[in-house]
Amino acid sequence: MPETAEQLMRSRYSAFVVGLAPYLLATWHESTRPQELELDPQMRWKGLEIITTRGGGAEARRGVVEFAAHYLEGQREAQQHEVSTFVRENGAWFYLDAL
C-alpha cells in the first residue's frame, strides 16, 4: 500500500498506463468514486511529472499533489494537468477529487 499521497498518485498513474480500472476504483474515496470507470484504450501514457506536493506524508491525513500526465492521443501529444486531493483513512490513502 502507498505510504504517502504522492506514492498513491504515482501508483494510480501506473494503473492508468496498464489499464487497471479495478485498482483505480479501489483507491478512489467512496464519497466521490464513480460506479464504474471506462478507460480509453487508445490513450498512450508517456510520463508523469510531479509538480508540487503539499502535506500527504506518511502520518498526514490529507495531501495535495499537482501533476502533469503526458500522453499521446493518436498522433497528438497532450497532457492532463491536475491538482488532486487525497485523504488517509484507517492507514490507507485515497484519491478524493481534483481542485
Major beta-sheet overview: 4 strands, antiparallel
Identify the strand order in the major beta sheet: 1-2-3-4
How large, in whole angstroms, is the Cα Rg? 13 Å
**Unreliable residue stretches:** none
Strand content: over 45%
Question: What distance separates the N and C termini?
Answer: 24 Å
Structural class: alpha+beta
The total count of strands amounts to 4
- Give the % helix: 10-25%
Order of helices and strands: HHEEEE
Query: Average pLDDT value?
Result: 96
- Could you say which overall geometry the principal axes of the C-alpha atoms support? globular
Number of helices: 2
Provide structural commentary.
The protein is an alpha+beta fold and 99 residues long. It has helices at 5-18, 21-26, and strands at 43-55, 62-73, 76-89, 92-98. Strands 1-2-3-4 form a 4-stranded antiparallel β-sheet, covered by helices on one side. A hairpin with a 2-residue loop joins strand 3 and strand 4. The longest helix is centred in the first third of the chain and has 14 residues, at 5-18.
Name its key features.
single chain, 99 residues, alpha+beta, 4-stranded antiparallel beta sheet, globular
Summarize the structure.
This protein has 99 residues and is α+β, with helices and mostly antiparallel strands. It contains two helices and four strands, in the order ααββββ.
